[in-house]
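Preliminary data (for renewal application), acetyl coenzyme *A complex.
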Amino acid sequence: MAQNATLTLNGKSYDLPVIKGSTGPDVVDVRKLYGDSDVFTFDPGFTSTASCESKITYIDGDAGVLLHRGYPIEQLAEHSTFLEVCYLLLNGELPKASEFADFEKTITYHTMLHAQFDRFFSGFRSDAHPMAIMTGAVGALSAFYHDSINVDDPEQRRISAHRLIAKMPTIAARAFKYSVGQPFVSPRNSMTYAENFLHMSFSVPAEDWVSNPVLTRAMDRIFILHADHEQNASTSTVRLAGSSGANPFACIAAGIACLWGPSHGGANEEALNMLMEIGTVDRIPEFIQGVKDRKYRLMGFGHRVYKNYDPRAAVMQKTCHEVLAEVGHGDDPTLKVAMELEKIALNDPYFVERKLYPNVDFYSGITLRALGFPTTMFTALFALARTVGWISQWKEMFEDPQRKIGRPRQLYTGPLRRDYAPLETRG
Ligand code: ACO
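Predicted structure:
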């Protein structure tokens, strides 16, 4: 039954429609409020605001549930592959065998970069952060693919989405190779998505590179865990940039820039740095005291939406153990610090009262380091995997007939109108 909420303001009542989703909180539709009543709603940080309608990802933060197109993340991480999850996020359904074969072929076909594109990398200092390179390089893709940037054409949107998913591993691997002074490695079409990425990152011309199935599966799972997360800061950035009709490569570059921040994707790098700085289990109490004294935050802990264990963190923890055992680092001291820190934090009233639990970044750093990546690559890997989420959300926005340019309003608290005074008259 249709419901309304009533807002009473200065003695006048306004009926506001309440809209139900398939699950999750109802929303109060305030779209006509300003026109009818001359007031705005105020919600900096969007803590109570649904910025769009979406059918892609659902999070129940209190229950620690994450679903992509209805499928629980645990099931996808256990049974699916990253490319299959890409298809699911983009198209809404798991592919039939023939659909998947076509999709895999298409993505494989687009993995190479234009030869001219490699010149971008050499324009950066050798100590450039890979995220700086990623932001610049992905934005530059729009200069190479003029044939797929008409955002009003569904076919061009589809091709751009495929190009982005296919080329991100090649770009990320080149950013890594550039930072370590090794030659770029071309993509190999006979390999799976994750295997090809590890190959482009770690093979060198002087030796034969041998793929390791445990590490390949872990890489693929890490990609699945980061594939999408509904309307987080970087996804909202991509949608907002896209709402003006900007081309998809520029929008994804904007998303990468937003992801870089330490409160968002940059937390995986910060979390491992923090664990290494703590170093040994005996230093944890002193560190926890510093958190309580608000000198710093426990990185990889807390989440705007999850007020329970982040389901991705649980899978990541398991993957972390598998990778460390495989590379012979089962007794990694950083893992010991992480596990003890988690145990202490989960029982400490400071963290319990604030519902602070490990998020996906808490264990991802240790895992990625064991796979062979330096900390500076961590957020770049997150960006690689999140590209499918960003582009799926961007595509969904264009398929929505109600699409409008995103244009928030504000609560103005600055000076009132005043007259300009010439420089010589100012005292
Ligand atoms: N360590 C210590 N205290 C924390 C932490 C933390 N990691 N996170 C939140 N708090 C405390 C705050 O100090 C605040 O306490 P108060 O009410 O006494 O002032 C309370 O918990 C609420 O914190 P907010 O900052 O209001 O929560 P918000 O939802 O805005 O922040 C965020 C979420 C940014 C993720 C935060 O938890 C944080 O900074 N975490 C560390 C960084 C991190 O791991 N980011 C990754 C997020 S997941 C992702 O992007 C993949």
